Each structure stands twice: as C-alpha cells, then as structure tokens.
Amino acid sequence: AVVSTQSTGARGNTQNIAVGFNNTNTDARGWSEAWNGVIWSYSGWENVVTVASEIQNPSRNIPIIVVGSVSIVTVLYLLTVVSYHIVLPVSVMTSEAAVASVFGSATMGEAGLVVLAVIVMLSSLGGVQCTFLYSSRYIHSGAVEGLLPQVLGLVSTRFKTPIVSILYVALTTVVFVLIGNIDALIDSASFTMFPFIVLCCTGVIVMRYTHPELPRPYRVPLIFPVLMTLFGLFVFISPFTGDNWGISLLWVGLTLLGFPIYYVLVKDVFKIPGLAWAMKKLRDVTADALGCE
User: Fold this and answer.
1) Which of 181-185, 202-206, 284-288 has the lowest mean pLDDT?
2) How far apart are CA 32 and CA 34, in angstroms?
3) Helix axes 223-237, 31-42, angle to 10 degrees
C-alpha cells in the first residue's frame, strides 16, 4: 500500500486521518467486538510453539521469531492503514468490503485493482497454509496423548505429516465457510480461543512458582502472561454484557460439546457395545486407505 502510494504519486489528504476517530463508539462493551478483527490480523505468532519440536535451537530462535514477526506485522499493518486513510475517505473505507482493491484502483487505476486483489489473495493463501500447519498439529498431538480419537493421530508414511488431522481441518473449514460469513467466523474464532489463551497464560504463571526447577528452553517475562490473561478475560466476558450475548453463549455451548464427545468416544465411559471395535476399525481402514501409520 505504501509503495503504491509513493510510486504512483497518488494524491492523498491527511485530513482523512484527523477525522478518522469522529463518531467513534466509546462504549467499552463494544471494544471486544472491535478487537476481534484486529487480534485476528496480528495473530499467528503464538502458534509457533506448536512446531517448536521442529525448530532448531528453540531457546534462541523462538523469541526471535515471536518478536520479529510481531514487529514486522505491526509496522506493515500500521503503514497500510495510514496509506488507506490518506488516499480514501472514511466513508469509503466503512462502506466497501474490499478496501484494498478500492485503494489499488485509486492509486494505480484498473491495474491496481487487480494487483491489490491478487496480493490479498496470496496473503490469505499463505495464512491458510500456516493455519493448516499448526492447527493440524494441535489435533495430532491431542490424539497421540489420548485426548482425541486415535484415527486423528495417524501420520503419512510417505510425507511424515499428520495427513488425517489435516483432512479433518479441511473438512471442518469447508463446513464453517458454507454456513457462515467471514466476519462471523473471525468473531467466533477470536472469541472461542481466548478461554484457552487465558488458561495457557495462567498455567505459565502458576508453573513458574510451583515448579521453578523445570527446564525452560525459552523463558517469558511474567508481565506478558499477566497482561494477556487480563486482556483475554475482558475480551471473553464483555460480549455477555451486550445485546448479542445469546450468540456468545451458543459458541460457549459448542465449545463445551468437546467434553461429552471426549468421554463418550475417547474414554468410552458408558461402555457402549461395539464402540471400541468401531473406532479401531475406523483407524485401521483409514491407515490402509491413506498409507498411514
């Protein structure tokens, strides 16, 4: 965005920035909803821990990855937003669904519309690829640890990747895309992930004092998990004080469905006849069909 603005000599107006916060809703109950999209734009760095075992010298490289990625994304994100505001009035930015394409058209003509659309598409494709990388590792690790059905822990003998969990992520992604829109998906994903972020951050704080002797390849200053815990609690709780609290409650209910699924399908607490055989058969058939072990 910045490059196209400078290279084409597009005329901008800094007055757009000056009025950018006019008529802003200052109700704290709406902050969490606004933050969902922003958090989604900045997120991704935290998922590097899911592939920590595949990173060389993690005690050195993981902090570099986290700090470097957050810094780069922050700079690029702010420069892009400033460029949008300089070229486009707020009324256009709030009414258009594809702001990047409108910006490209304003700075480079019809060619810019296509160029910016392709750049956004490639960026989204890269984000999807990274999402499949780490989310499939979550599911695979859960299956290996006995928290999910064993079939999800199968690994391709040829590619050495958790192919079944990758296919599972692809299937659920298609289902959610078909039944929802992008804004609703971002809001729900951001909202439902915060309880787990709070639990992880709380765990870091508790373990630091209860087990200080444990080896820590990378040691995070406690101020960060404390701030993230407080922020996560606010973002998770505040939607219940608004008018759409029922939707938030629905997503909490869907998340809690994991408990009965775990106790019924994984632990088999009710000793359902034939369930253990069916789950083993599903694993064996899937392993044979996909070449897994």
Assistant:
1) 181-185
2) 5
3) 130
- Determine the Cα–Cα distance for residues 143 and 149; give it in Å rounded to an integer: 6
Mean pLDDT of the chain: 81
**What is the rounded distance in angstroms from the CA atom of residue 1 to the CA atom of residue 4?**
5
Contact present, 63 and 81 (Cβ < 8 Å): no
Q: Is-contact 146 134, C-beta < 8 A?
A: no
pLDDT(14) > 70: no
**Cβ-based neighbour number of residue 119 at 10 Å:** 15
Amino acid identity of residue 242, one-letter, is G
The total number of residues written for the chain in this structure:
293
Q: Which residues contact 249 (CB under 8 A, 6 or more apart)?
A: 240
Q: What is the model's pLDDT at position 179?
A: 76
Task: List, as own/partner pairs, every contact residues 133-139 make where C-beta atoms lie below 8 angstroms and the sequence separation is at least 24, other chains included.
Answer: 133/51, 134/47, 134/48, 134/50, 134/51, 135/47, 135/169, 136/161, 136/162, 136/165, 136/166, 136/168, 136/169, 137/50, 137/51, 137/162, 137/165, 138/50, 139/165, 139/168, 139/169
The answer to whether residues 50 and 165 touch, using CB atoms and an 8 Å cutoff, is no
> Cα-flanking dihedrals φ and ψ of residue 98, to 5°?
-110, 80
- The vertex-180 CA angle with 43 and 39, nearest 5°, equals 15
Q: What pLDDT is stored for residue 151 in this prediction? A: 92
| Terminal Cα-to-Cα distance of the chain (whole angstroms) | 47
- Structure tokens given for 186: 């971002």
- The string of pLDDT tens digits covering residues 92-120 is 877 777 788 888 888 888 888 888 888 88
